[in-house]
């Protein structure tokens, strides 16, 4: 495992609230339990359960959101999640989260995101490069790291549209992403329970985002839904996540399109969207030279890490260290950040090679 931890890695599919530490979640639930908002023993059982079906995962997210949705907690979680990824040598993290409105806490989608950014700025264990376009600042951070020898992580954000949301709510998220572009927001994600909501509800907001030049990634094919899968592939997003329930025709379309796929092995196996790692589509896509990125999805919910995903892929598909390094390095092409960041990532991988 140690060699995978030491290797520089790029994480492109990580949900903020799914990446929360179990210890933090239990501590927060304990606090709410004392206040009588939740029954702590019930919450503890859900949190500590290891195998979860996809519907159970979404029940857990509802619970996590009860426990986490105030500004201070959002800031704390963001800080911890970034520190955890940095500690295993993730050098570029694209962290996605659903901006939430919570009137009882005086929270708007914008103030939620401001709390997220505050968490990123509060990271103390590594240098965090946050801004998308402020090259001068990036160079300054680089110089400082060179001088102090401290580690650095690039962090960028994707704003998620939840499939429970209306067209208007989705549009609000896209507008927020556009307003926050200079602050490190680099794209849009569509996620949430795949059996809820219609593609046509989100399409106007996604088309608007695309028109404005915001890159988009879609959770695609987590459940069998050929009509939606075809519509999503026709939309030509910059990346898709999962691609588990594809049929022959969808595989052909995907391969022709060359849309990169964010692969989350442990998540797919625990939620039983894929029956076992031996039959995972990673193997076929890798052999076909289709663009792939190994990702975690939800390190907290699925008790994994990006290093553990690399270890699993290496052992399950017989890939040696050099091949895994190449896979990690190739992800540079698929990040949503700009060319100056890609250039710096190239340098990091070149010196690690
Ligand atoms: P948040 O957006 O609150 O930071 O992260 C948790 C949310 O991410 C969940 O409520 C859900 O909308 C989304 N999410 C996390 N994991 C998955 C997944 O495996 N599939 C889908 N479709 N959505 C997910």
Automatic annotation (TrEMBL):
- Reported cofactor(s): Zn(2+)
Query: Catalysed reaction(s)?
Result: N(6)-methyl-AMP + H2O + H(+) = IMP + methylamine
Instruction: Respond yes or no to whether keyword DNA-binding is given for this record.
Output: no
| Protein name per Swiss-Prot or TrEMBL | Adenosine/AMP deaminase family protein
Gene3D superfamilies associated with the record = Metal-dependent hydrolases
Which superkingdom, per the lineage? Eukaryota
Q: Which family does it belong to?
A: Belongs to the metallo-dependent hydrolases superfamily. Adenosine and AMP deaminases family.
Protein keywords: Hydrolase, Metal-binding, Nucleotide metabolism, Zinc
Q: Does the keyword Nucleotide-binding apply?
A: no
User: For this protein, what is any one GO molecular function term?
Assistant: hydrolase activity
- List the CDD domains: ADA_AMPD (cd00443)
Any single GO BP term: nucleotide metabolic process
Q: Which organism is it from?
A: Forsythia ovata
Please list the residue ranges annotated as the Adenosine deaminase domain: 8-347
